Every structure is written in C-alpha cells, then in structure tokens.
Structure prediction request, 191 residues.
Amino acid sequence: MLRRTERTRRSLAVAAAAALAFGPAACGGSGPKNKDGDGTAVAFSVGQRKAFPMLSGKTLDGPQLDMNTFKGKVIVVNIWGAWCPPCQREAPYLEHVYEAYKDKGVQVVGIDTRDNVPQARAFAADKQLSYPNLVDGDDGALLSQLVGITSLQNVPSTIVIDRQGKIAWRALREITYTEVAAELDALAAEK
Prediction:
C-alpha cells in the first residue's frame, strides 16, 4: 500500500509541474504569477527602457527577416502559438493594429513558437495576418534571446519597441487593440 501511495504522490507532483509549465499560465490563463510579471502589462519611462535584441530568422512565408530593417520605426512584437486560445483571440486585434498604424511608422512582427510550420501557416491564414511572422524553431533560438524580457511560459506576450530600439511597453498576457493603440499613441507623442 505504501508503494502505491508513493507512486500516486509522484504522479500528482509530475502532473502539477506539467500544469504549471504548460497549463493556463503558459498561455495567458489565470495561473500563478511569477517574479517576471506573468499576466502583467508595464509601460517603461524613457529612462527605464532597455534595448531589445533585434531578431532575425526565417518567416512563415519562407524568406529571412532581420528586424534591423525596421530601425527608426515603432515595432510591436507579438509572441504566439496556434495552440494557444488567448493568441487566437488577440490575433485580430494585432492585425487591426498593423492596418491602423503601418502608415504611421509602426511595424508589427509576430514570433510563432511551438508549432509546426503548416499549423502556424494555417493559423496566420485563418486570422488573415498580413504582417511578417518569424518562426521560432524547435531549439527556441529566438525566444532564448529574450531572456529577461519574456519566456516560453509567457505566451502570448506583446512588446512595443520605441524608435530607438528600446522596450517601451510589455504585456505578458493577452492584449486588446485599445491598450496597444493607447501605447502607440503615447509613443507618438514623445519628443
């Protein structure tokens, strides 16, 4: 009887660890909050901003993309996965942001994570995403460059980068059009 109880405890511990790693908190749900701010949105004053590592890699459409080509623009970076319900809900808002602000010096870039390419392409087509989307490979090479900014446990995440290439705003949760638009309007008003 003792062996069965110990096995049950171990099974519960493994299940709890998996739920924390891949459950609601890993996909914008209401899971536990961590010290990195999972579930929060923060605006950074000009003096608090740190540089964003301009990523490069293959896109869902195939060609390479180097975010350095967008220097001087405000960049909205969204980390998503087709498997993530909050990502599915916020995708139309991000497309709306792109359409509303692309002629105002704003670029949206998605980063797909933990999907196979056909699955991610189907998601982008279904959501009619017209902005470029980088593919984070199985090795997580793109997201590993964002340590301290976000993590695999914070999907979806949205980061707004100012014209100087610094992080002006970050949401480690699902976003809405209204809140991203407010941040973009605030950045436009900066001198």
Observations:
- Residues 2-22 form the longest helix (21 residues).
- Strands lie at 41-43, 56-58, 64-66, 74-80, 106-113, 133-136, 157-161, 167-171.
